[in-house]
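Input (structure):
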């Protein structure tokens, strides 16, 4: 028999269900654009970056992805002409992902659909207090999952290898605006 209390088991079961259902639901919402939610998140991170360019390692942190996953997805986006890869001028060992004009147009075209999906699937049932509670609860869990602060969106500070001009993450309200 589990040592977890009933309310703890219910909370964990609901979190598991959310983690399984949400990515698929967001992907379905974007299906008309032939883009997954993760692909959109990657393109959006590049769109928000100065000059539409980020090191792959920084982009992985911004999107909460492992470098191998990010590289696979970036390859697909590159084949579609939405991004290119370029050598990093500051570090010859590193590679940058660069948003193309087609990628920027894709972000602009998909943004309203993505935001509609986020509002209808996640935020629609929450008042402002609920949104704040969701953000705080998610942060508390993510902070425990990532004690080394590898993921920029949840860490409250940029990853160690982020250039100084990439010191903010627009997705984390705990960080000062750039």
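Output (sequence):
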């Amino acid at each position: 028999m589990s040592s977890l209390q009933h309310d703890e088991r219910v909370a964990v079961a609901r979190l598991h269900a959310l983690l399984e259902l949400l990515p698929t639901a967001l992907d379905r919402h974007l299906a008309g654009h032939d883009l997954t939610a993760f692909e959109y998140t990657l393109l959006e991170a590049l769109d928000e970056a100065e000059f539409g360019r980020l090191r792959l390692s920084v982009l992985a942190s911004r999107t909460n992805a492992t470098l191998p996953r990010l590289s696979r997805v970036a390859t697909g986006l590159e084949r579609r002409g939405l991004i290119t890869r370029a050598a990093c001028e500051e570090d010859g060992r590193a590679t940058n992902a660069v948003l193309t004009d087609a990628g920027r147009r894709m972000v602009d075209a998909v943004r309203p659909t993505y935001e509609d999906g986020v509002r209808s699937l996640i935020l629609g049932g929450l008042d402002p207090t609920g949104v704040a509670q969701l953000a705080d609860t998610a942060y508390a869990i993510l902070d425990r999952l990532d004690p080394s602060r590898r993921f920029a969106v949840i860490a409250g500070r940029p990853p160690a290898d982020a250039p100084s001009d990439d010191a903010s993450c627009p997705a984390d309200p705990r960080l000062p605006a750039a």
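Notes: The radius of gyration is 17 Å. The beta strands are 53-55, 83-87, 95-99.
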